[in-house]
Amino acid sequence: MSRIARFILLGYVVLALAGALLLMLPFSHEEPVSFLDALFTASSAVSLTGLIVKNTATAWTTFGKLVILSLIQIGGIGYMSLVFLTVIISGSRGSYFIRVLTSGTLGTGLHEVYKMVKVVIIMTILFEAAGFLLLLPGMGPFHALFHAVSAFCNAGFSTYPDNLMSFWNSPWVVLTVSFLIVSGGLGVFVFTDLWEKFTGKKRKLMLHTRVSLLMTAILIGGAIPLFAIMDHTILSHMKPMEKFLVVLFESITPRTAGFNTIDYTKLSEGSLFITIILMFIGGTAGGTAGGIKVTTLFIVIRSLESIIMGRDEINTMGYRIDKELILKAFLIFTMMNILVVASVAIILAVEETNLTRTFFEVVSALSTVGLSLGSDVSFSAGFSPVGKMVIIVDMLLGKAGILTFVYSLINVKRQKVRNPRGRIMIG
User: For tag attachment on the chain, is the N or C end more exposed, with fewer CB atoms within 10 Å?
Assistant: First the structure.
């Protein structure tokens, strides 16, 4: 299994390097670009993050932007393609690894894998085509195509110098991009399940779908009033509809799209704190979003509830959650925190920087969000080569997934011998 995980990680590294070489071509950029900055941009694109060290609108030619767009598209559907290739190469062990990566939401046969890849491609084309048509009147062909792909893939790259700040009060653009972000974040499993339920092929939705929809609604619905309270000073001069569009987009884009319709450097500390939490959580397993995933958070919360209530098992919505799934959820949650702390510590050690902005940037990178407290480029654009490499590694690890990273480091073996029970005082 460690070999399979390393193969997936290596795949993203190779894609990033290939993208960087293409961006280094003379006809890819409008201004001088170092290889590190090209690698940073390519890594950000293929990981669907959106952090930039060069302004996408002005630094890259049309060819360069097409390279970035291609990397975003590969990142959006390439993850499932990599899993598919893994199954072909590794046989039954690949099927087991799929269950590890998707937390038990897939079947084990090759038929399910073929079906999954087919649905991913079809769904991607349909949603991006719909987004393109909806954005076309207000943006024009190239901008509409770029933003439709970037939004559905939760990438956050924009061909406008100020991202989407020019459209902050445009209901058509804000609602269309928001719809694409949420749709991409929910992912193929949810939409396939909804379609089968709608067409009568099954009687009830999977637990994964129900949890994903519930948590998504709670996080978006809960964040809207919080942002409205925290940012009341910024919102005070706006009309009611404009206020709603701003706080709605604030609630959606951290999970994990990275577009912005307002200047994040002007937000209150409270808003930044909420945004960091939303970025850390991310979207749904099986979608294009990053973070620990809403399903992981759900299992962690229900596990803590069961411990407090003295229950031996977690039962929710008529189902029992396996202990193996619970342990994986806590592993993801814990490892994400460790990576955040380690990355922040390294950057603070090598850079003369601000803690809040560094913390924000690291979580944005690891959760593949793309929001930043920089000006026209990301805050990490001012980092030294070491600091930029930390962010690059974070973006690629965030895209590959925490479980993939863990399994790439170790060989998972079943324990054959049980040692005597030991007791340690805690608390």
Answer: C
The DSSP line for 183-211 is HHHH-HHHHHHHHHHHTTS-SS--HHHHH
Contacts of 74 (CB under 8 A, 6+ apart): 15, 46
d(Cα 213, Cα 401) in Å, to the nearest integer? 21
Query: What's the pTM?
Result: 0.88
One pLDDT digit (tens) per residue for the chain, 427 residues: 566 677 778 888 999 999 999 999 999 999 899 999 999 999 999 998 989 999 999 999 999 999 999 999 888 876 555 555 555 555 544 445 454 444 333 444 456 666 677 777 888 889 999 999 999 998 999 999 999 999 998 998 999 999 999 999 999 999 999 999 999 888 878 888 888 888 888 888 889 999 999 999 999 999 999 999 998 888 988 999 999 999 999 999 998 888 999 999 999 999 999 999 999 999 888 778 889 999 999 999 999 988 888 887 888 888 888 888 888 899 999 999 999 999 999 999 999 888 999 999 999 999 999 999 988 889 999 999 999 999 999 999 988 888 777 777 766 566 667 778 777 877 7
Do 20 and 42 contact (CB within 8 A), yes or no? yes
What is the distance between the alpha carbons of residues 116 and 379, in angstroms, rounded to a whole number?
A: 37
Token pair of 187 as six digits:
């992912």
SS3 label, residue 374: coil
| Other beta carbons within 10 Å of 121 | 14
User: 């901008």: which residue's tokens?
Assistant: 143
β-pair partners for 60: 29
Round to whole Å and give the CA distance between 387 and 392: 9
- Using DSSP's 3-state secondary structure scheme, residue 311 falls into coil
